Amino acid sequence: MRILETNDWVIFNNITYQIHEIRDFDQMCLTFLQQLRLLMDFDAAVFYYSSKTCVPELRHAVCLDYPQEVAEEYLHQYQDCDGSYGLLKGGKAMVYRASDMFSDEERTATDYYHKFCEQQGLHHCVHLIPAMNGKAVAKITFFRSRNKSNFVYDDLFLLEMFKDHLALRISKYYDEQERQNEKLTVHQCEERFHLTARETTILGLLMQGLPNDVICEKLTITNNTLKKHILNTYKKMSIRNRTQLFKMVKEYSDD
After folding, report:
1. Which of 21, 40, 81, 202 is the most buried (most CB within 10 A)?
2. Which of 160, 127, 123 is nearest to 39 (CA)?
3. From the CB of residue 197, how many other CB atoms can be counted at a distance below 10 Å?
4. For residues 66-75, b (16+ Cβ closer than 10 Å) or e, as one string?
5. 87: pLDDT confidence band, cut at 50, 70 and 90?
6. DSSP labels, the chain
7. pLDDT tens figures, 7-49
8. How far is CA 202 from CA 172, 190, 255, in A?
9. What is the pLDDT of residue 255?
10. What does the alpha-carbon distance between residue 231 and residue 248 come to, in Å, rounded to a whole number?
11. How does pLDDT run across 197-248, given as a tens digit for each residue?
């Protein structure tokens, strides 16, 4: 079993920090692949992911020293022919080498191997599948060329250490995407963003399409007071204008 030295732990902690703190998801994926090279030797890698509603089918790829167009072709035409797709459907978190599933003779005879490994000058590969609540949420594949040795237990042990961190980060990303794609009611906004009673009332009037002067008259407040309430509401909801508000909130309803 690999024993991490002090410098290794510093790198490991930095990588886990970046997994959780980098807001742009594709940048997080790329940074993870780049930084992992400080702890594990590999020649190329692909971080495949999707969305909460699509898993286990994968839809997107972030590549490191691997052709983007080849990864996209895998996503659109070949992933259901890949043996790992069945493991994704199983929903279990795991780390495994291709050589653990098939003999070298079996694997090198497949169209998948010729197209996605051999043509790229790659041979050995190890897969990391993070999972959360019984669902696989991504697949990350690392490759080595034939002139290098296969991945060993120490490599698998290292990837296991990142498995739960990645699962949590990816699940949070999927939840964020799902929330962005659903419109909220005024009441849901009140609860989720901790709006005051006055802010909730103004939000409801805004969603009716009423102009500011009419809202001021209804509530007997000045235009400056109204603007302060609206800006506070925008700040709580992390938006900047009325266009974003109408994209985020459903048309006014009594709930």
Report:
1. 202
2. 160
3. 8
4. beeebbeebb
5. confident
6. -----HHHHHHHHHHHHHHHH--SHHHHHHHHHHHHTTTS--SEEEEEE--TTTTTS--EEEEESS-HHHHHHIIIIIGGGSTHHHHHHHT--EEEEHHHHS-HHHHHTSHHHHHHTGGGT--EEEEEE-EETTEE-EEEEEEE-TTSPPP-HHHHHHHHHHHHHHHHHHHHHHHHHHHHHSPBPHHHHHHHTT--HHHHHHHHHHHTT--HHHHHHHHT--HHHHHHHHHHHHHHHT--SHHHHHHHBPSP---
7. 999 999 999 999 999 999 999 999 999 999 999 999 999 999 9
8. 31, 11, 15
9. 46
10. 16
11. 999 999 999 999 999 999 999 999 999 999 999 999 999 998 889 888 988 8
Structure tokens given for 82: 């890949």
